Amino acid sequence: MDIEKTLSQMTLEEKATITSGYGPWATPAIDRLDIPKVTMSDGPHGMRAMKEEGTADLRESLPATCFPTAACFGSSWDIQLAASIGEAIAEEARELGYNLVLGPGMNIKRTPLCGRNFEYISEDPVLTGEMAGAFVEGSQSKGVGATIKHFACNNSEFERMSLNVQVDERPLRELYLAAFERVIRRARPWAVMGAYNRVNGEFACEHPRLLSEILKGEWLFEGLVMSDWTAVNDRVSAIAAGLDLEMPGPSDANDRRLAEAVRAGELDESVLDERVRRVLYVADLAGKSGINTAQRPAHPDPETLTRHHALARRAAAQSTVLLKNEGDLLPFEPTSTSRLAVIGRFAETPRFQGGGSSKVNAARTETVCSALGISGEPEGVHSDSRPQVYEHAEYAPGYDEHGHADARHIDGAVRAARAADAALLVVGLPDAVESEGFDRSDLELPEGQTELIRAVVAEQPRTAVIIVAGSVVRVEEWIDEVPAVALAGLGGQAGGGAIVDVVTGEVAPSGRLTETMVRRLEDSAAWLNYPGENGAVHYGEGLFVGYRWHDESGVAPRYPFGHGISYSRFEYGALSLSAGGSDGRGGRSEESESGEGAESGPSIAMRDTDALSLRVPVRNAGSRSAAEVVQLYIEPPKGRLRRPRRELKAFSKLHLAPGTEGVAEFSLSRRDFACFDPGFGEWISESGEYRVHIGSTSADIRRRATIDFESTVEPRRALNEWSPMREWLEDERGRRLFSEAIGEQLIDHLSGGRPAEREMFLNIPLKKVPQLTGGRVSEEAIAGMLDGLAASP
Ligand code: BGC
User: Fold this and answer.
1) Which of 224, 241, 554, 654 has its CA 20 to 30 A from that of 586?
2) Using an 8 Å Cβ cutoff, are 123 and 514 in contact?
């Protein structure tokens, strides 16, 4: 499409129309100008294509593969896996006739109570950005655009359509926008979805700073910004602010208002043109993708569905986080365990996704029971029957469909556990608790589940508990009594099969926590500033969200961010570093003496213009195929700005056969050492000694290194009359001006003296010096210094 030519042929009315939806799931086509429509559908975990075009009934969608939810596949820390899920959802989108997928969701998990945490990836922006970026690349490699959402600060569902999020610049930039920025710069998504909430007073979809200055201006986003569904309150303001498309449509009254605003001179037509260009840009991409948007098959191809079911099972198994495994209780290998008690209704009536717009009409479901080849199938749910995995396996529901366990349920469960060699107990949250549109009220498991767990493990010491939930649940009352516990998350339609793969030992779990598992709700970072009051929430914890808070406060979590164990063991070799050129090659290099025992590790000097590459060999020293997630954290030196003790900057997942070795390779550059300084409005990386920590979890650090980092551009705060004397005296020119004005002797006198007096003097602003020195420094001298400063700023 010749976008400029097409634009020049459009009428004002057509421009207004094309910047709002045609029904709930498309942009309008304009046949006269050969502009194709762009079709779109939720969502992030699988296609939610409507049976009838133009309807929006959440319960009426075509069957499709339901992949593990973002919270679940995020726990895999596996970039390739995220890309494969993006590709697979795109394949189904193509077959069903859709151009754009409304996902992935990538808001930061600020509180474990957010009802939509199951739809988000992590509390950390690097992990979120890397995984979401891979998903976007996977999807777009198939010609289907991705829509990253919800931009920005939709970190809870409480009053989401009006809540005013009050957030400071640093957490905004370093946490809440950082993940979006990463994806925009690296993966070039076709679209961004604006959030419902307000950010510092303005609605996210009517926010000039977020949409025009930052997203399009600074990050050079070239795609389409659409609103969340009904998030536009004032279309003219939204268009003026930088929103390109109001969803859903039709929005005739707003289209008319928009055209009138242009006619009345309230909105420059060139601004509207800019928005239309972006709709045309995506329409052009959609047109070129070869997707037949007119076709409406009843479901994706059966062969596609079979392949994707296998991917969904592999993904969920890879994402399972083994929290503890005393005495190597798991796996329960069928060769050594012949009688297994399978307890928990979710093993038979599975809970595998969350509620709301991401809900997929799963093409099939595989439950723990069906994957084990034992009965207990709910009526009407298709699943394939398999040969029995264990010689004897008995199922007991343990709790009702709401997750509640009473004495009768518990007795049945205990009986089954007693008769077995081992018990597999599936617990978790029911459907009604985790959904878009509202938050959870606590972190508790449903009534009676704690008693159920304790009763079963008291009877059967070989009990493994599997938790099915989209976010953190409180485990304090029972976890010390249970030898093996895994978090399966909401694993999608094959989640039951994935649990079986992990329990039987077919797959060694390799998921890692993406969200700190707190001991109690009160320990979470946002506790005092959630949910907000009088229409606003203040992100008072600032930068200290998730592990950043626990590291800083010393409040121990139950399990830290990045935690997860394997059935295997991994040995780390010597860490080597090299810094130089922009790719880190051809420069200086350092290798640690020996891997083990090198407490402080190697060190290397680098400048902010260099790239730093790091390599660490890792060997699977166990006897099973398994995967290790190597995590790299940076600890900054103490500087002018308060910074979290350490932050995740890179990670690498290595899949290794027993006895084999792989190499985790990382490349870091200036930005990885930087933080956002609102004083300058830019990312700064101060010179100093940075420590690198590389480990298997955030608490199991295996290798360390020291980076002597030199900044070639160290921005300095401009001096003015309010700058404290410390800054005046530390600044070469400031000191010279002061010395010229009052003489070195007086400076020595004022800044000498007893330590307390000296500190007090260094803390006072220049302006107050005459008053506080009893006239020894005159007003004129100070005025002269300020003139000198102004003469050569
Ligand atoms: C959700 C979006 C979703 C949209 C369309 C909204 O309620 O917040 O994530 O894409 O509906 O279903």
Assistant:
1) 654
2) yes
